[in-house]
């Protein structure tokens, strides 16, 4: 590498590309951190959803009633000592739901709402469409409902009912269900019912697990269980099989809204507990995003090292030492360079002995030209040299010694002797 040359790129263009890439990278980090990574089109039933199958109305109603209500995107909130309302998606894992409920049995009460609707975002081309509108495309009971284990095993079923019989009643209230075509109720499980449909099937209830729940027992019309016959420090698990009594679709009716608020208050067993709506089991924030993970130990150290390395590389790129180097030609112009290349090749190939005879002949021709001889005959050169410089060495002897030399240093000494003879005759 030698010489200098003009840069192949315009510095302004490169600076613009770097700035654009930095802005795009920061925007990517922002959208990842805020969870705005695009929607799949499926409207999950969680507290953030304002469609028919969501629970945003329940959240807002409880908030306006003065309760301490919050949303959770972190699984750390599973250990809250308040009321945790779970709204898992149909694709949630039974093991995850079971673990949450079991871990909370001696921490705080839990409300589990079983989904039933298949909802998708309403097309933008739909006439009169409003934000957060969804289309209900049918219903099904999630498989995890029957896979929660022996203590939490639930069997639910969706059945259509005759027109005019899609009604519910419980806790001193009653009314019509919003959709008579799809009614989800318990068919099996250790459930103490708090609401039932016209066929007598339980729609809402709490787990009969041996705990002491005097407030719930009284609401269900049962006799109080003596403290010696139940576990006092265990919290209740409220289960809602018919989500239309709790979701936005159901809270459009005043009686259903009052019933939903009453279920939440009963789950708190008369205590002023904070209410937390979980969104992780519904797929919102179930796992840490890459931005959060990058700034969490032990990955924080690697992130800081990467940022420092980026700063150093950027500083070196704009503060490099000296001008850019231009690559030189592999074979330079000129006879001198050509000879230098040939000599270098000969040295690298270790064939110096091949140069002895040509060099001796070259010196002979030069001496013949200086001495005025017609030919470069060694005998004639020796005689002419003896006449001009009697003290000079004999050319033929020097040439013979050069032809017999083999090592590099021996060849150089013999060649130097010939060169000295040439300088003596032709100074």
TrEMBL record:
InterPro entries with a match to the protein in the record: DUF4350
Task: For this UniProt record, give its keywords in alphabetical order, as a comma-separated list.
Answer: Membrane, Transmembrane, Transmembrane helix
Keyword Transmembrane applies: yes
Pfam families from the entry?
DUF4350
Q: Identify the residues that the record assigns to the DUF4350 domain, covering every copy.
A: 49-263
Q: Which residues cross the membrane?
A: 12-32, 299-318
Q: What is this protein called?
A: DUF4350 domain-containing protein
Q: Tell me the organism.
A: Tsuneonella suprasediminis
